[in-house]
Design a protein that fits this description.
heterodimer, A: 2 domains, B: alpha+beta, Rossmann fold, D-amino Acid Aminotransferase, Chain A, domain 1, Dna Ligase, domain 1, four-stranded antiparallel β-sheet, globular
Chain lengths: ~450, ~300
């Protein structure tokens, strides 16, 4: 036997090798986007940076004793089973827990229609894998969940983004887009929406628009994918029925997750879909990873058996409400008068829009020098829109950190506003010139609170 | 030999540096050296003092590593290092300074104006912007003076796009330059030990600009090496070596040029060129049959015997 010590190997050291690999890449890798963002974000890993960039729930509030007790019980009582493969669809007991969570928002799915997935992200991937051929039309919101963008891209979808305002996706624009596609003899494979406390915009689709969307889906036989990670994280206002409930599950595919109400680290999500779609999704999941983690499904089962999951969510809601308030207050104090932002009634994110001469990717470079980070708006668009917006997360940092983070962002923004003023003086600003042509367009988030004061 | 590899840092090119560094470490191990991985962080000086490497391979880009900071520190500690000394780093990292040096030495570089933020904030420099149209014409390129990998570089097609482009560029540095846009082929000449390697041409896919993403994503840009210049190589190489000398580089460097209608124009000189999988210096070395390991070894040799550089 060869007794030489194993040598650490980093794959490619010669460009000729690279060329060889490049020739092997699938066509779809050409549209998979990497970005300057990723490199910028490498800098945010520094401990002194206040990151309002992530989408992290606060897992520090989960009681360690509970975690320890549950894992111990699993080890003592069902080690062999918990370490084994499980069914592709997930355990019946996990689906029971899912039913409880969905019931809390007024939904009652047939357990047969549910599949447990490796996070909600896998559900998005599996739906696309099931439905999308290269060039197929997919519709989503503008801005949309930044994590959905690479999924749509990697399946080579032709993604069409529909403008959002404070009441969520503009259904009139959706109809216009559908008509346009119809005229081209095309039918979109799906409409992807995060109706409640949207990521990244923080807005919630109104009841009237929910009804119209469902009615539209039924009339046009259109599949709507409802991604609802934050529905139970409501701080104020009246709960609204999910699209799935309004539709009854014929044309709405529902995605849920334990990530924001329990833990993202356990990677447990789910999907509810009509049986013919589910059949293909199950085959797709088998090909992807055979089954979702057995161990974490056991953990969820134990956790729900304890019966305190609603209390835990209630405690999160209290914490996040305070953090949202702190962020909104800080935005009022530190952002310029021209800035607008959303004031979400739940979820994890605020979407702020700056004067259009500010490019938030460049602003991020400046912000990082001031030790603060956010997500530039462009990440939420397939095209070049969103360049003056930013996503701000308020769940992953404490109230004091949030105030300080917003103060730092406000300072670098103020510097850019001053500089632009000095540059343009009394000359007509390019922004004003351009706006004349754009005035017809409805300004998104028009009800958003004006900054200043 | 005990070789420290310095990488990381806080610059925006941190990710690039980590990739360069990892690749260099790998090559050094294969060459049989003892490798000491060094993160550019608070404990660096302490670690250098304790470990006393025979030489440090600087695989850092942008601020902190390519601007003379790390070099100064190593000089104080008396530890030899790869690449240029402090003075050349200071000149290369600052595009405005570099352009002045190049112009003084007769090296062709596109016309430009430079401004710092104070000029606009306190001296009303905006009034002078009107002169740009006559002096530089449009389109023009707006760049942060210190910055790399095309971050913050914007094109202004008309007067009205200039303020916005300036705001972006000032996000990266308090000094920016406005440069005449030269239409032409994008070339890079890597210089190793005072000699030019074959010219590399970057040909962006689908008419993209050779921006940050195109630079570091495999398959986004195709490279021709040696570039087909039909007899124009001599002028390109001469301009590149002129820039290398004018800025006082040593060891290695990468000179970026545009080959326009009026011949080559030097845009900038990178004192510590990238050594990632998609970087141009390794490609150029390979074109003369020099493997990455041999390239790394040669860079070490040049640093140990600076007289031959």
């Amino acid at each position: 036997m060869d007794s030489r010590p194993p040598q650490r190997r980093r794959a490619h050291t010669r460009t000729r090798d690279l060329e060889r690999y490049a020739g092997l890449f699938a066509e779809r890798t050409r549209v998979m986007r990497s970005s300057a963002m990723r490199d910028l974000m490498a800098v945010t890993a520094r401990p002194e940076v206040i990151s309002l960039a992530g989408g992290l729930p606060d897992t520090s509030t989960f009681p360690p004793q509970t975690f320890a007790a549950q894992m111990t019980r699993i080890a003592q009582e069902s080690a062999a089973e918990a370490l084994q493969y499980g069914p592709t669809e997930g355990f019946k007991e996990t689906v029971d827990c899912i039913a409880q969570v969905m019931a809390a928002e007024g939904m009652l799915p047939d357990p047969e229609d549910v599949i447990v997935t490796t996070g909600g992200q896998q559900a998005i991937d599996l739906i696309c894998k099931t439905l999308i051929d290269p060039g197929d039309a997919v519709i989503c919101e503008a801005p949309t969940y930044p994590g959905a963008v690479p999924v749509f891209c990697s399946y080579q979808a032709d993604t069409i983004q529909i403008e959002c305002d404070d009441d969520g996706m503009r259904i009139d624009e959706l109809e216009a887009a559908l008509d346009r596609l119809d005229g081209e003899g095309r039918r979109p494979k799906l409409v992807y929406s995060v109706p409640s406390f949207q990521n990244p915009a923080g807005v919630t689709m109104s009841l009237e628009r929910r009804r119209r969307l469902v009615e539209l889906a039924q009339r046009r036989e259109l599949l709507v994918v409802e991604d609802n990670p934050y529905g139970l994280l409501r701080f104020g206002g009246e709960p609204l029925p999910p699209l799935y409930q309004l539709d009854g599950g014929d044309f709405v595919i529902y995605i849920g997750t334990f990530s924001k109400i329990l833990s993202p680290g356990i990677r447990l999500g789910w999907m509810v879909a009509p049986p013919p779609v589910m059949e293909k999704v199950v085959l797709g999941k088998q090909a992807s990873d055979l089954c979702t983690s057995t161990l974490t499904q056991y953990f969820v089962r134990e956790y729900f058996a304890e019966g305190r999951w609603r209390e835990y969510i209630a405690s999160l809601v209290e914490i996040y409400r305070g953090r949202r308030d702190a962020m909104v207050e800080a935005l009022r104090e530190h952002f310029p008068a021209e800035a607008t932002w959303t004031e979400p009634e739940g979820g994890l994110f605020i979407w702020a829009t700056l004067p259009e001469y500010i490019d938030t990717e460049d602003l991020l470079a400046k912000a990082l020098r001031a030790d603060v980070a956010f997500v530039p708006g462009r990440a939420a668009y397939i095209d070049e829109r969103g360049r003056s917006s930013m996503r701000l997360n308020f769940s992953g940092a404490g109230e004091d950190e949030i105030r300080e983070g917003i103060r730092r962002i406000g300072k670098v923004v103020a510097e850019q506003v001053d500089l632009y003023g000095a540059l343009t003086g009394d000359r007509p600003a390019p922004g004003e010139q351009r706006n004349e042509a754009a005035e017809e367009n409805v300004v998104p988030f028009r009800k958003a609170v004006e900054g200043g004061g | 030999m005990k070789v420290g590899v310095l990488k990381g840092g806080r610059s925006l090119e941190r990710g690039v540096s980590l990739r360069s560094g990892a690749r260099v470490e790998d090559a050094l191990e294969r060459l049989g050296h003892e490798v000491l991985a060094l993160e550019a962080e608070g404990t660096l000086v302490k670690r250098l003092d304790e470990e006393r490497p025979d030489i440090v391979f600087i695989a850092m880009h942008g601020r902190g590593g390519e601007d003379g900071t790390a070099q100064e520190l190593l000089e104080i500690l008396g530890i030899p290092f790869t690449g240029p000394g402090v003075a050349a780093c200071v000149r290369c990292i600052d595009k405005v300074l570099a352009k002045h040096e190049m112009r003084a030495a007769g090296v062709p570089t596109p016309d430009w104006f430079a401004f710092n933020e104070t000029a606009f904030r306190e001296l009303g420099a905006a009034e002078a912007l009107g002169a740009l149209e006559q002096r530089l014409g449009f389109p023009l390129v707006v760049k942060p003076s210190r910055g790399g990998s095309a971050l913050g570089v914007k094109f202004a097609g008309s007067w009205f796009e200039v303020p916005e482009a300036l705001v972006s560029a000032f996000s990266y540095d308090d000094r920016v330059l406005l440069e005449r846009f030269v239409e032409g082929r994008e070339l890079a000449v890597s210089v190793l030990g005072g000699e030019a390697l074959p010219v590399v041409e970057a040909i962006p896919a689908d008419g993209d600009r050779y921006d940050f993403e195109a630079r570091y994503e495999i398959g986004r840009t195709t490279f021709a090496c040696p570039a087909e210049l039909g007899g124009g190589e001599a002028a390109v190489t001469e301009a590149a070596l002129g820039a290398y000398r004018a800025l006082g580089c040593s060891g290695f460097a990468r000179v970026d040029l545009i080959l326009g209608e009026d011949g080559p124009q030097v845009l900038e000189v990178n004192a510590i060129p990238g050594l990632t999988d998609t970087s141009l210096l390794p490609q150029a070395a390979e074109a003369v049959g020099m493997s990455f390991e041999r390239l790394v070894e040669r860079i070490l040799d040049l640093a140990m015997k600076p007289a031959t550089a």
